[in-house]
């Protein structure tokens, strides 16, 4: 028997990352559809689509804030990831597949989480979502360029590590850090309008 309440994490993401002016009605509609027989998978799909649409809308409506969030988020996350993995690599030695997983995945997540936390202090939470979506889009573009114009091929296991960090670890880390950090003081006043 299907539970009557929709996935709590999906609902919480909608409440925290979509501005209140649009989230209340959207969440109500999704919950109603879910209780009328829609599946958990459907609810998650709708949540992901709603988050992506919200990120694009926020980016379009607040171009300067979105640009600032992307630049700050990228500079913080990329520089932290570079310095932490470089420093850890000197202690561990050469990068093996296992070493890469043990180094890149946690350090990539921590770097992205710190980046998201910093963004939550300087920007509204919807801008953290804009940055996470940017990470995914930038990864798609980078991977396409890499696939089309191979300059120097990495071994397949290392390519998988990089793709995992870029497509999964960095966006989830940025969102986690952004949600764990205290919200930007002005974000409540801006989101309420």
Give me some keywords for this one:
83% helix; 193 residues; mainly alpha; 0% strand
What is the average per-residue confidence, as pLDDT, rounded to a whole number? 84
Largest sheet geometry: none
Computed CA radius of gyration, to the nearest angstrom: 18 Å
Give the end-to-end Cα distance, rounded to a whole number of Å.
41 Å
Low-confidence stretches: 187-193
Order of helices and strands: HHHHHHHH
| Helix content percent band | over 70%
Tell me the total number of β-strands.
Answer: 0
What fraction of the residues are assigned to beta strands by DSSP? under 5%
Q: Which class do the helix and strand fractions yield?
A: mainly alpha
User: How many DSSP H or I helices?
Assistant: 8
Shape: globular
Task: Briefly summarize what is shown.
The protein is mostly helical and 193 residues long. It has helices at residues 8-17, 20-35, 40-61, 63-92, 97-122, 125-148, 156-180, 185-192. The model is unreliable at 187-193 (pLDDT under 50).
């Amino acid at each position: 028997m299907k539970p009557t309440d929709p996935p709590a994490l999906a609902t919480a993401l909608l409440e925290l990352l979509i501005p209140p002016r649009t989230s209340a009605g959207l969440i109500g509609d999704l919950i109603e559809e879910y209780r009328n027989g829609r599946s958990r998978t459907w609810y998650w799909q709708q949540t992901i689509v709603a988050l992506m649409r919200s990120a694009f809308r926020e980016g379009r409506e607040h171009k300067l804030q979105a640009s600032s969030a992307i630049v700050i988020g990228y500079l913080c996350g990329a520089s932290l990831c570079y310095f932490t993995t470089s420093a850890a690599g000197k202690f561990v030695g050469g990068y093996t597949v296992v070493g890469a997983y043990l180094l890149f995945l946690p350090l990539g997540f921590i770097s992205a989480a710190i980046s998201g936390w910093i963004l939550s202090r300087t920007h509204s939470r919807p801008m953290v979502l804009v940055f996470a979506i940017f990470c995914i889009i930038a990864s798609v573009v980078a991977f396409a360029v890499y696939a089309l114009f191979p300059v120097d091929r990495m071994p397949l296991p290392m390519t998988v590590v990089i793709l995992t960090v870029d497509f999964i670890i960095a966006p989830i880390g940025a969102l986690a850090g952004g949600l764990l950090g205290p919200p930007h003081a002005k974000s409540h006043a801006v989101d309420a309008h």
